[in-house]
Amino acid sequence: MGTGTISRDDSENFCVRVVGIVTAMRVEASCLTRVNLPFNEMVSLGEGAAIWLSGMGEKAAREGAEGLQLGGCDALISFGLAGALDSRLRPGDLVLPDSIHVGHRLPVDQDWRNRLQQLLPTHVNITNGVLAASTGVLTSADTKRELAEATGACAVDMESGAVAQVAAKAGIPFLVVRVIADPLVFSPPIPLLGAVRPDGSADPVRLMSLILRRSVTLGTLLRLGSQLRSARATLLTVVKHAGTELGTLPKQPHS
Q1: Residue 209 pLDDT greater than 80, yes or no
Q2: Which band of pLDDT confidence, cut at 50, 70 and 90, is reported for residue 14?
Q3: Beta strands 105-107; 75-84: pairing state
């Protein structure tokens, strides 16, 4: 696999990096490539970037990050969706955190984060601060508030902590690109989680069963769909304007 991403090291000399991007869900990965990705496998996105569709959760993301690092990537990105822990954050808001809380705080590469942030258009609402790692989906405002109080974080996801730990152990740069999909006061209902496959796609048979049993309402699904569209639009904007900061990605039509 070739190299193509240019970044600066501490001595301000240019160095070449191969960026490995961990995504949990297909809806996230589709913002980076139109390829129908295999599950749990390193896939080249062209010279200077690779992607791993890991599935949701800490264990899956750790395996993906380790696979990318062993496959030759010497910089890692956790890319995708997050939940808000701050009531001011709305679906579509971008979180480019300073650090990840995994019991302690692991910093991102600040220079890399700042370069990316400077490339983005002014209409994108960007938040820094702390991103919390969670071992499960948070399905109530109360559990989100408790995590915010315990960690000082503004947002949460289940994968970035594991990717951060792999990067720290390997001594390689790490970055998080996460967009709010669900606000503080509205989360995916617990029954819906049973209709979601490991790659984040919906199981139509189980979903229809939930609707028929009225365990999940159409109104809830429509709201979740709207939030997801807002989040995906921001991820596409990041990819469009990031230049080589996400690796040298092939040109893709945006939708």
Answers
A1: yes
A2: very low
A3: unpaired
